[in-house]
Structures are given as C-alpha cells and as structure tokens.
Amino acid sequence: xxxxxxxxxxxxxxxxxxxxxxxxxxxxxxxxxxxxxxxxxxxxxxxxxxxxxxxxxxxxxxxxxxxxxxxxxxxxxxxxxxxxxxxxxxxxxxxxxxxxxxxxxxxxxxxxxxxxxxxxxxxxxxxxxxxxxxxxxxxxxxxxxxxxxxxxxxxxxxxxxxxxxxxxxxxxxxxxxxxxxxxxxxxxxxxxxxxxxxxxxxxxxxxxxxxxxxxxxxxxxxxxxxxxxxxxxxxxxxxxxxxxxxxxxxxxxxxxxxxxxxxxxxxxxxxxxxxxxxxxxxxxxxxxxxxxxxxxxxxxxxxxxxxxxxxxxxxxxxxxxxxxxxxxxxxxxxxxxxxxxxxxxxxxxxxxxxxxxxxxxxxxxxxxxxxxxxxxxxxxxxxxxxxxxxxxxxxxxxxxxxxxxxxxxxxxxxxxxxxxxxxxxxxxxxxxxxxxxxxxxxxxxxxxxxxxx
Length: 453
What we know:
Elements: H1 2-16, E1 21-25, E2 32-37, E3 49-50, E4 58-65, E5 68-77, E6 80-92, E7 99-106, E8 111-119, E9 142-149, E10 155-161, H2 165-170, E11 176-177, E12 193-198, H3 204-207, H4 215-219, H5 226-234, E13 240-255, E14 258-273, E15 275-276, E16 279-295, E17 301-302, E18 308-309, E19 315-321, E20 325-335, E21 337-338, E22 343-351, E23 365-370, E24 374-376, E25 384-392, E26 396-397, E27 404-413, E28 418-431, E29 441-452
Parallel strand pairs: 6-11, 15-29
Antiparallel strand pairs: 1-4, 2-3, 2-10, 4-5, 5-6, 6-7, 7-8, 8-9, 9-10, 12-13, 13-14, 14-16, 16-17, 16-27, 18-28, 19-25, 19-28, 20-24, 20-27, 21-26, 22-23, 22-25, 28-29
C-alpha cells in the first residue's frame, strides 16, 4: 500500500512540474504580405511589396513555453533560402493587453530582429505594411516579423494572420508586462526630426498638446501633492509666487510611409518669496508635465514616450545670488527612475558678499549627498556661499509623467538691502532609450526678482 502511495505521489510531482509547450507547425494562414526596403523611412509601395507567397518570408513554426518564444523559418534568396532560428522572451505591451512583443535574437546570426509582435486586435490600425483600410475579422490575429539582413542590410517586413495564436496567448499566465514601450522598435533605426519650443499662451493652440484643452489648464498643472504644497508655504513667511518655462520637445519619426510623433513637456519652475526678511526658501523644480505618442495610422494617443532626461548625460542645476545675499541651506527631493546610484554631487564656492557672479559648473568644494537630505553651510567668515550646483549622475532619469528633481535653497540676507535676483540654470539631455541623443544637451535659465531686507 505504501509503495502504491509513493508511486502516486511521484506521478503527481512529475505532472505538476511539466512546463507547457504550445507549438504551431506548418502554419495555415489566410493572409500574408512581405515587403523589402532599404530604409525603414521609405514609403511602402507596389515595387517593394512581394505578393507571391513563394517569395515571401516563411514562418515554419512558433513555439511558446511559459514566456519563452522560438520561431523557425526562412527568407527566400533567389533560388536558395536563408534560414532563421529566433529565440527569446515574449512580453505583453505596457500600453494594452492585446499586443505582445518578442525580444528575440537569431541563433544563425543571419538576421537582426527589428520587430516581432502578435496583435490580437488588428482591426485597430498600427504601424505596419498592411493597408490600414484592410478589413479584419473579429477573431483575426496579426503576426508581424521584421528582419534586417546582416549582410546586405536590407529590411524584410512580413505580416500574416494566425488565429491559432489567440487561445495560446490569452491562456498563458506566464507572460509578463513590459516595463518600457518596447513596441516602439522604430526609435532604434530611424533618425527623428527634433523640435524644441517654449510654450506660450500665443502658440499653445498650434502645438496640439494631448491632455490639455487650454493654456490655462497647462499653466495651472502642479506636480506637487497637497502635503508638498503646504510644506512649500510653511517654508516661507512671505507671499509665494513662481516663474516657469514650459518646453515641449518633439521627436517625429517617418516610419514606412506614416509618422509617429512623440511629445514631452518639461517644466522648469522656481517658487520664491516676493520679499525676505533675514531669509527665505527658493524652491526649484525640473519635472515632466506630459508625454504623448501619436501614430498617423490611427491617431490614437498613448500617454508615454521613449524620451528620457538623464539617460546619457548628467543633469545639472546651478544657482547663484546677487551681492549681499547667500545660501544658508540646500535640500533635495525627487521622484525618478533609479538607473544609477541615487547619490549625487553638490558643489559650492565661498565668495565675498559684493562680488558680481555668473553661472559656472566649477566649484571650490564638493560633497556627495542623497535625495531627501539637506546641507547647511558655514558662512561665519568674510566669504559666503553664493554659488552652488547639484549634479545628478547619468542614469538617474526623469522618464514618466510626474517625475521630478527638486533643489531648494534657503537664501539669507547679509547686507545691501533692496531688490535682488536669484539665478537658476538647468542643463540636461533629452534622448530616446536606444543609444541615440538626437535631442542633445538642453540649457534653460530663470532669474527671479525679490526684495531682501
């Protein structure tokens, strides 16, 4: 009896440890199209499309085991065939539950996988070579496989329906959500047209910014929660006002006959007192107000982009005071992507109170600090801390709506009462995440006026 029980237990353990493998061989498809182009910015036309199935890309089988994906097939090459064996992970889009993307490599090292996706809702047009007016059935599943031949650098774009994949995909609980907008494969291969515009009331309507119906709505947007707003008021005994620059960065990609437009609105903000007696807090903030991506195929808006601040360059915030005032304390806060150590550098210089100053990134002294900390300066000597700069390391990124870097200054009065100015400069890069920095380094400056006593 014990022996029979042991056998049953062993069988149960074996059965529960089996990894399900879903395979589709000799695919039976009712629609397929292949195009060959030299450049992914090229418009797809009849001369680039291959309608004859004998000369199209052939997918022989697709296998999915948990979140592991393998694909076998070939690309016709005159009278021969260039075989591929693709393997990697399959992920669900972070933006929708009806699109799945493969992160694949070719074990035969003949092709670079530009894009592999399984679209459970092809009736909603997306980037591709299929005519956006094509009518799909409700149960249709569209598979896209885009390859780059490593030898001749041509792009082979293939799309076909495979309805058997729907059940396999929807019943697989092992597929994880992607953390990034990985379906935006084009950012790696196409150089975008880049524009940078400071937003004003006069030009707002012409900029077509999704998510904001009016300039007033944008102008009143506040990334601070109520507790932070209350703290900002507590930190100063004077009336608080602000000065800001809202900048829209736009990357436009021409992709196989259509366009993809990414927009990121970055706010540069100084909250400050109109009058200080003895001292007052000046709060500076760099943050992402809005992100959007629009494809010309559908005009649907995705509130996300591949644009980042701090991905490939450090982010600097430099400041200085007018003669007679100086920095007593600096504090830091933020919300960001931790792609690097959360430590950052603070630099400062002791300057005679009456010395005229200008922006610099070279300081006499420096220290390493962390977000959420503060630093008090020793101003007991004749020289005062009137110049200071914060450097956030490359890799500490602002990448989502609401991400921000704060540098807050307690400005003290020493002598020469009257109208003064506080000067702030931000230096950073705007880039996509595929090792391109088309946005380049950006510099924004704000000077605010206040009365010091």
